[in-house]
């Protein structure tokens, strides 16, 4: 099992989840984050830290977000690892209700 960042994160990109990851599984794309499933140790720390509920265990990803499982696996290693907190992106596609 691995955790998955869904498209809910697109244009929001809160990074507190990456900062709590003990194994540096998060990768930062310009508009979202990805989790490398081969690095993820399923500790669940990131899911609790995500303020917009964009992270799910791969077995519990809602049906409409299932493509995110493959996206994380294919895209994560194309981008640099992120281990720190940065200001959220809050772009046009951000589904953050506090925006």
TrEMBL record:
Keyword Zinc: no
Gene3D superfamilies documented for this protein: 3.30.70.20
Pfam assignment, any one: Fer4
Cofactor list: [3Fe-4S] cluster; [4Fe-4S] cluster
Cross-referenced InterPro entries: 4Fe4S_Fe-S-bd, 4Fe4S_Fe_S_CS, 7Fe_ferredoxin, RnfB_subfamily
GO MF term (any one): metal ion binding
Alphabetic keyword roster: 4Fe-4S, Electron transport, Iron, Iron-sulfur, Metal-binding, Transport
Function: Ferredoxins are iron-sulfur proteins that transfer electrons in a wide variety of metabolic reactions.
Name of the protein in its database record: Ferredoxin
Organism expressing this protein natively: Leptospira yanagawae serovar Saopaulo str. Sao Paulo = ATCC 700523
């Amino acid at each position: 099992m691995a955790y998955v960042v869904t498209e809910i994160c697109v244009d929001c990109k809160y990074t507190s989840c990456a900062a709590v990851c003990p194994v540096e599984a998060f990768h930062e794309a310009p508009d979202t984050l990805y989790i490398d499933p081969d690095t993820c140790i399923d500790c669940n720390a990131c899911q609790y830290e995500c303020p917009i509920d964009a992270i799910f265990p791969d077995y519990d990803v809602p049906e409409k977000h299932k493509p995110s499982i493959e996206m994380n696996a294919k895209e994560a290693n194309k981008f640099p690892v992120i281990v720190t907190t940065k200001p959220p992106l809050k772009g046009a596609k951000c589904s953050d209700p506090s925006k």
